[in-house]
Amino acid sequence: MRKVTAVMVLTGLLSWGAMANEVTYREHIKPLWQSQCMACHGANAPYLGEFDENENKYVKLNLGPRMDSYADLLMFVAWPDTGALMRRLDDRQYTQDGKPGNMYVYLGETEQQRQQNLALFKAWVGDQAWTLKRKNDITKEELTAIKAGY
Ligand code: HEC
Question: Which pLDDT band holds residue 96 (cuts at 50, 70, 90)?
Answer without folding.
Answer: confident
